[in-house]
Design a protein that fits this description.
The complex is a heterodimer of chains A (445) and B (121). Chain A contains eleven helices and 15 strands. Chain A is α+β, with helices and mostly antiparallel strands and 445 residues long. Chain A is rod-shaped and about 135 Å long. Helix content of chain B is 27%, strand content 33%. The longest helix of chain B has 16 residues. Classes of the chains: A alpha+beta (445), B alpha/beta (121).
Chain lengths: 445, 121
């Protein structure tokens, strides 16, 4: 357009058509010396070309920036996404190579001898005068270095050119944008890594909890002449409450226990208590559960003492038709005997296991005839709170047992568990809840 | 739970008020452990205002008792509230702890005149 205008000028030289043709071919024609008009045309043309080149470069940088922030980090592993970002950043910053150092990671993209020197500077922190991107001089050319990230896992980043122009202020701003993009990527990566680690821990916790709970019986034992209700609900994935049954030579052995504490740590101790209890069942006379309970205490004392925990536990045996339950109680509650229409608390005869070494309790003989019951719970029943913080309580439990003593053991067991649940009214379980009810086999009471 | 620590020459006491359960163990430990810096230390734990105690708290009291006895000292439970007394009876732990009914154990501080109460929570 400028040339069209020129053609109307009064001083248009005779060779202007040649000049126009040469310019259109992209080859500026030699300017006749002393012709001010042609020199002006030449300056304007040069300026236009520079602007055009700058615009093209700007468009290229914009495209590179888009490519940089559009790196599909979701579909790549952490290092691949980072490497792709650095590759895009090379084009964006017109660099020949880049080095990223973070923790044990050293990543290089591009090529050139200057990368070795740049890596050495970054790994030893040399040349990092401040956190924002700033130029440094390498033996083979200019470079820019910057600090990446903050907090526990900082790093650093450098770009280098083999030779030629130093990094301009505009380049530094672009590199600042690159640093921001890489920081974002690293933050996302760290978040993702932590999330994966948490998920792995959760999975392991769940698996360990399932394994611990798997040691508990899934159904009450089947033995002619006796009815058994059994339920154990941990407050979380796993708990310290436990039930153990074994039928040996027509005798039902049973134990109900509670490891102090909650959750998986208590559950781990619980599995060991269950194993020791099973061994004790097999190695003691059924009329002497106190000796069996003492043996469990001997087996577990050092272990429990070492971890600072104790186990409350009631252990007993019942031969159907005998009318007598033999029972030993190491600090366990609630424990209720309903006999002859009278309900009474079965007191402990020794402290919990793990508190006093080599202590022996005594065996109690409790009647279990027709219409009699033995109720063994855990403190999670009595200590269940409602939304107002009111406990279910030992007295209420005893009242319910007296009130429902005419029911079958299953009806009584279900009724008590539901009653505690109703009391909670949706409040979280305060503790594990465990209940065992024993009675002579009959249809109704 | 509120924890109030009082120390004086040869006398230490910790008064607890509120619920003493698994969530309060760390607070109790922070109050108790510094008292064990010297041998033969006797610590009175005043439980008059404890409204609830669970098995985790009992285990913590047993741990503290063992630590005190290992250095020729003791942990003495005083002024037990009804909820605490009932739980100790149900678990037969009343025969394991040293207990005192007296009310002055936790209050008789400062034989050297310097024992000031410190409320930690």
């Amino acid at each position: 357009m400028a040339l069209v205008g020129l053609s109307r000028h009064a001083d248009v030289p005779t060779d202007v058509s040649t000049t126009r043709m040469d310019l259109e071919r992209g080859r500026p024609a030699p300017v006749p010396e002393g012709d001010p008009l042609l020199r002006t045309v030449q300056r304007l043309t040069d300026s236009q070309e520079r602007v055009t080149e700058a615009l093209i470069a700007s468009q290229d940088q914009l495209a590179a920036l888009r490519a940089l922030i559009g790196v599909p980090i979701n579909s790549l592993d952490d290092n691949s996404a980072l490497e792709l970002m650095l590759t895009e950043a090379l084009e964006l910053t017109n660099s020949d190579g880049a080095v990223l150092v973070r923790g044990g990671l050293v990543m290089e993209v591009g090529a050139g001898a200057q990368l070795v020197e740049l890596r050495q500077r970054l790994t030893c922190g040399k040349g990092l005068r401040r956190s924002e991107p700033h130029p440094v001089e390498l033996s083979d050319g200019p470079a820019v270095v910057a600090v990446l990230g903050e907090g526990a896992r900082p790093g650093c980043l450098g770009f280098a050119r083999r030779s030629g122009a130093r990094y301009s202020t505009g380049d530094l701003q672009l590199i600042d944008a690159v640093v921001a993009a890489i920081n974002t990527l690293m933050s996302l990566t760290d978040l993702h890594r932590r999330s994966v680690q948490r998920a792995a821990i959760d999975r392991e916790h769940q698996l360990a909890s399932n394994l611990a709970q798997a040691i508990l019986p899934t159904a009450p034992p089947s033995l002619a002449g006796v009815e058994v209700f059994a339920a154990s609900i941990p407050a979380s994935l796993a708990g310290g409450d436990f039930i153990v049954f074994e039928v040996l030579d027509g005798v039902l052995w049973f134990a109900v226990g509670d490891v102090a504490g909650k959750g998986l740590p208590a559950a781990i101790v619980m599995t060991r208590a269950v194993s020791a209890t099973r061994v004790a069942f097999h190695t003691h006379a059924d009329d002497d559960p106190a000796a069996a309970l003492g043996a469990v205490g001997d087996e577990l004392f050092d272990y429990l003492s070492g971890v600072g925990l104790f186990v409350t536990m009631a252990l007993g045996s019942y031969r159907p038709g005998s009318g007598i339950v033999h029972l030993a109680n190491a600090g366990h509650s609630p424990l209720l005997s309903v006999a002859g229409g009278v309900t009474r608390v079965v007191p402990p005869s020794m402290p919990p296991i793990g508190v006093v070494r080599a202590i022996r309790g005594r065996t109690q003989r409790l009647p279990l005839g027709p219409n009699d019951l033995l109720v063994l719970g855990s403190d999670g029943l009595a200590e269940q709170e409602n939304a107002d913080g009111e406990l279910y309580g030992y007295d209420r439990l005893r009242c319910r047992v007296e009130q429902w003593a005419h029911l079958t053991v299953n009806e009584l067991g279900d009724g008590l568990m539901n009653d505690v649940d109703d009391h909670a009214g949706g409040a979280l379980a305060s503790d594990d809840r465990t209940l065992v009810v024993l009675g002579e086999a009959r249809v109704a009471r | 739970m509120r924890i109030r620590t009082e120390t004086g020459a040869g006398h230490h006491s910790i008064s607890l008020a509120g619920r003493f359960d698994a969530h309060e163990i760390d607070g109790f430990r922070v109050a108790f452990e510094p008292l064990m810096s010297e041998p033969a230390t006797v610590v009175h734990v005043d439980l008059a205002n404890v409204v609830f105690v669970d098995s985790s708290a009992l285990a913590e009291l047993l741990r503290a008792q063992r630590a005190a006895r290992e250095s020729d000292g003791d942990l003495i439970l005083v002024n037990m509230s009804d909820p605490v007394r009932i739980i100790l009876e149900l678990t037969a732990l009343e025969q394991v702890f040293t207990t005192e009914a007296g009310a002055n154990a936790a209050a008789g501080v400062a034989a050297d005149g310097s024992g000031r109460p410190v409320e930690t929570r």
